[in-house]
Here is the input.
Amino acid sequence: KQEVTQIPAALSVPEGENLVLNCSFTDSAIYNLQWFRQDPGKGLTSLLLIQSSQREQTSGRLNASLDKSSGRSTLYIAASQPGDSATYLCAVRLNAGGTSYGKLTFGQGTILTVHP
Amino acid sequence: ETGVTQTPRHLVMGMTNKKSLKCEQHLGHNAMYWYKQSAKKPLELMFVYSLEERVENNSVPSRFSPECPNSSHLFLHLHTLQPEDSALYLCASSQDYSRGEQFFGPGTRLTVL
Here is the structure.
């Protein structure tokens, strides 16, 4: 059974800092990995999707890396801003013989607070 | 705006009520999902529909009944719920069941009294 763990559970940083959020998964046979952002009481916003054949993806100040063999992904946020405050969720899709199960397995998230 | 809408955004119901949650996607996707998000627990997949056919049911109690009349609409019918069913219910869609990003709606905050 795939399990996804995110560390730390919560993080508070001053504005302008670069930071790293960690995600680990127990079954390395993944199809892809997705990072989401969730604002309080809201739905999820997809940030980055990394296919299993990729090592990283970048979007603006965000960079996500994937090391499938070690079961790890990191989300790097450069020059953090108060508007980045949210819960960040990591989710993986298992690989089933070249295709995937539709199911995403989620971590519990990292609550990020960026203070001015 | 993600292209996935959910109504109502908030719902309070008693244990004997019957209500329905609605999800609509405007993205032309073929797969739709229901997730449950409880406090202090990871998101849990409840149901998956692909081309209007249910392809996954993750041991969800029968008091939750999904319906997918077409590829753009997904419903979750609720009856005789328990207080522990109070949660944020999220709908998502993706181009195909087997791949592609999942796009989420804003969720329905459900409180069962």
